[in-house]
Amino acid sequence: RAERESRADRLLAEMQLTEKAAAKPLSLSGGLQQRLLIARALMHDPKVLLLDEPTIGLDPQARRMLWETLRRLHEGGLTLIMTTHYMEEADRLCQRLAIIDHGKILQLDTPAALKKALPGGRILDLWVRSAAP
């Protein structure tokens, strides 16, 4: 029991949640809840962590903080497998990307190689605003 409590305290500190240790999870912001969920998933010291859209719904600051947390975990030897719809996130966090459509892997390579394979090597984001009648 003491070992579990010590590990929980260490993970809370690692996730910068020590000050919120007594808080009810639902009272935390989305970013803090995500970090708490990751801390909980790390309690049994896994070698691989599966994350499904870990930053969905987070504000930009919380997203960046979570990215740094995930980067630290990976640098510490943890293998991360994650899904995301955010290409910037995949580009920043992933060493290899799989582009999947309806359960089928369409492309599998490094972010740099996948971007290079794009026609013209560029991604263009368009924002269209409808005109008022």
Short précis:
Helices cover 41% and strands 16% of the residues. With 133 residues, it is of the alpha+beta class.
Number of helices: 5
Global morphology: globular
Number of domains: 1
Low-pLDDT segments, ≥5 res: none
Read across the widest sheet, the strand sequence of neighbours is 1-2
What is the CATH C level class, in words?
A: Alpha Beta
Question: Could you walk me through the main structural features you see in this protein, from its secondary elements to its overall organization?
Answer:
The strands form two sheets. A two-stranded parallel sheet has the order 1-2. Strands 3-4 form a two-stranded antiparallel sheet. The protein has a single domain, classed as Rossmann fold (3-Layer(aba) Sandwich). By secondary structure, it is an alpha+beta fold. 41% of the residues lie in helices and 16% in strands. The protein is globular and about 60 Å long. The longest helix has 16 residues. α3 links the parallel β1 and β2. The chain has five helices and four strands.
